[in-house]
Amino acid sequence: MTDATAQSFIDTFERERASLPGADGWLAARREAAVRELADAGLPHRRLEDWKYTDLRDVLEKAAFTPAPVHQGAVFLSEEDTRNGAALFHAIDRYKIVFVNGRLNRALSDMEDLPEGVVLKPFADVLGEAWTKALIERRFEINWQAQSVSALNMALMADGVALHVEEGVTLDKPVHLIFLAADDGASHMRTLVRLEKQAQATVFETHASAGAAHYFVDLVTEVSLGVGATLNHIKLQDEAEDAVHLATMRAALADEAKLDSFTMIAGGGVSRGQTFVEFEGRAAEAHVNGAYALRGKQHADQFCVVDHAVPECNSHTHFKGVLDDESQGIFQGKVVVRPDAQQTDGRQMTNALLLSRDASINAKPELEIYADDVQCAHGSTIGELDKDALFYLRSRGIDEMTARQLLISAFLDEALDYAPHEEARAELKALVAGWFEAGNLSAEDIL
Amino acid sequence: MLEIKNLHVEVGGKEILKGIDLQIGAGEVHAIMGPNGSGKSTLSYVLSGREGYEVTQGSITYKGQDALAMSVDERAAAGIFLAFQYPIEIPGVTTMTFLKTALNAQRKARGEEELDAVKFLKLVREKAKPLNVSDEMLKRPLNVGFSGGEKKRAEILQMSILEPWLAILDETDSGLDIDALKVVSEGVNALRSPERSMLVITHYQRLLDYIVPDKVHVLSRGRIVKTGGKDLALELEKSGYAEYGADEAA
Fold it and tell me: What sign does the dihedral B235-B240-B241-B244 (CA atoms) show?
């Protein structure tokens, strides 16, 4: 059954189809198929287990987004206010690709002087290449309900970036993808990353508002790592408080490939981050970690599936978060170890700290194991600030607010330490410190 | 320095302290001894301002001020220090960071200039050396994975850096072997001065061989039942607490 909101997206597609990238090539048929899929299934809703805690259909229906316009005029990029996520990572030498309202802004971007063997282009420019087609058409072994939203993205993706690194090449500087919303509305983007054998790259991703308040970001990131390739990935989500953020990353790893991904969620109204990892080769390694600091009525849902289909792979997932006011956090994680995946090492952990009586967290870490020679562990803790620790700190003259900040920072730092880039990690820690200052960690909140 | 008058304290609706009177002058060291459950730790927590300890009657006057009107951190900044019987583990906060935050918080509260990193490091090294607190220990999260002796040495290090006017030592001897006890006691004795007072809470006389008190009080069932000189501790060691109505064998 097509719901009204799915229909409005389909209407957008009908209006814009001729101008969407790949309209006259193989992608057109894929988009048609995606539209049919969207029409049949509609947007996901809470009766689907994977969407139990985030009723995307309801959220998008209430928000009633119209397509984001092409932004006119300048965009102000603050590089100094470290409390604003958009200002992060600017001190780090990097290639910069800026999207405004879902469209590449060349004037703000700096993607010149790439080393030999590296392609970094809008994906529309490389649709003719075999690797982009392979990535876009890729199907994962297990089809999760959570993946159904990729049809929405497939139908409407209007811009995005493709990064390709040739065999044995190490990208000398991080690639920083900055997604800014300057005007209200919905935007749909796609990132494609392919690292060939033994290639290495670091990708930063920032999502923030540059003036927009009520907007929808829909991003799908497709990652494919060749034998022994390494991708370090840091994503910072600091959207406006009335924004809806939907991001899906799907990664496939060949033998001995390594994915090290870290997500920090600081801002956004409703957000859903999905990560799917599929091991295709032996002895590969995936780290999917993150931290979040929520307040107000923020709702952040992290959904992570790691599929061990082959032997000897390691996966590590750890999310830690603090929740204040009436915020809601969700962690749904699943590690699947299929019959052939002997000698798997799969770890999954989530810890949440509730700072207010009205904040809530739903944690669902799951293991599904069909092999017998494996090491797997999962766990979840939910707690509040340790009163004994607070008393101890205060008995040394540290005021209550500082004592609380110290304990919360210590809690989040353990997760932030996973961020696979030293300078970026330090900037994320500074952002978290700013979160406290901007916040309302008042004495009245004490449980 | 400290004047406690007719102090009654309830914890969870149960009266634990039933009328304590105690005066400690500047430079004096008093010991409080007593059986388990007599209210020794309650007294130390009430003095430091811990929540959940309700004063139903009486007063605590510290340096002429009503201590009960002050918060935990205000009391600390005013110079009240409690060395914990069981120091709390703080994962993720290194001992060094903690010490610096605490010292500068107190200095700030007193309107003094905060110490910069260089001066602070010099101060810590100077104070840590006699207590055998290594740099490696200072880099570890506070009290996490510390042995019993390390925890107590870390407490005394905090005390010697914060330089309180009233130090309350709650069973500082528990869990210490004789060598560690010596190191800790020397650390405490080094802080004795005509302006600094101490309240040493202990179950055993042993500690008082090293930290020699001016007065000894026996606390039993929430009341001070006897006060004497340092010899009282020796008597107690021989006779036990039975005559003071101990509920259990000491």
Answer: negative
Q: Quick one: which of A131, A185, A123, A195 has its CA closest to A154?
A: A123
- CA distance to partner chain A, nearest, from residue B167 (Å): 12
Split chain A (447 residues) into runs of 10 and give each run's mean pLDDT: 88 96 94 94 92 95 94 74 76 95 93 92 94 92 81 96 98 96 96 98 96 95 98 96 96 98 95 97 98 96 96 97 96 95 96 95 95 95 94 95 91 95 94 72 39
Q: Extract the tokens encoding A433.
A: 């410190």
- The ranges assigned to domains in chain B are 2-244
Interchain contact, A396 vs B76, CB within 8 Å: yes
Q: Are B58 and B19 in contact (CB under 8 A)?
A: yes
CATH topology of domain B2-244: Rossmann fold (3.40.50)
Neighbour-count burial for A151-168, b at 16+ CB within 10 Å, e otherwise? bbbbbbbbbbbbbbbbee
**What residues of B are in contact with residue A395 (Cβ under 8 Å)?**
48-50, 72-73, 76, 81-82
Mutate to test the interface with A, among B48, B73, B103, B168 (most CBs of A within 10 A): B73
Delimit the domains of chain A by residue range. Answer: 4-385
At residue A446, the pLDDT reads: 36
Whole-complex ipTM? 0.94
